[in-house]
Amino acid sequence: MTPRSGPFDPGPEGHATHLVLGNTGGQLSLWPVWRPVPQGWTRCFGPAPYDACVRHSAAGIR
To answer: How do residues 8-28 score in pLDDT, each as one tens digit?
Structure first.
């Protein structure tokens, strides 16, 4: 496995590397798929490639 440069490294293009999480306050967060989902957050989208998650969260879709 290639080391990551940080938790939000987009990873290899086209690979399902991220999630979009949502909380009860209506906030969305881009989250790496390899990290556990934090308490109080739920999956809204993904796993999907980084760019797809960015587009999804920018659209504000829950």
So the answer is: 566 666 678 999 999 999 999
